[in-house]
Amino acid sequence: MRRNNWKSKLLAGAMLLFAMALFAADEPELSITLNRLDPPLPAPEFTLNDMDGKPHRLRDYRGKVILINFWATWCPPCRKEMPSLERVYQQFKDRPFMVLALNQWESEDHVFSYMGDLNVFPEFPILFDPESKVSEDYGVRGLPTSFIIDAEGRLIYKAVGGREFDHPDVLALIRELLAPTSKP
To answer: Residue range 126-154: average pLDDT?
Structure first.
C-alpha cells in the first residue's frame, strides 16, 4: 500500500513539472478531436465523493451518456476547458447526459477556492480521486484526459489534452450517442 502511494505522489509530481514546463509560456489551444475506441471497452466502476462528501457511483448514471474528465487546478488546459464542460452540461442537462469531473490529488478546500475564481460555478459533480486510483483504472497518463461513456456503460471516445467540449463537432458526437437508435 505504501509503495502505491509513493508511486502516485511521484507520478503527480512528474505530471506537475511537465505541465508547468510545457505550458509556462503559452496558454494551450483546445482541440475538438475525440478518438473513437474500437472496440468500445467496459467503463471501470468507481465510487467517489463530491465536495459535500456525497458519494457518486458510476453505476448510478447507467442509462446516461457520461462525459468523464480527469483534471487538476494546476493544469493549464484543464483550467481552460472547464467553462466548455459547463456549457456542454447546460446544453444537455435535460437529456440522459452527465458530466463528471474527477479531480486528481487536490483537497476539497483547494478546489472549492479555485471554483470561486471561475465566471460560472459548475453545476455538474466535481468528484475527488485523491490517490488517483480511478485514474489508474482508466489508464490516464496525462491531464486532462476525458472519456465519453455510452448509455450501456462502454467507453466510446477518449481525449488526452484540453478540448472545447461545446464545439459543434463534439456536440454532434454527443447528440449521436443520445439518439434513441444509437448503437456505436
So the answer is: 97
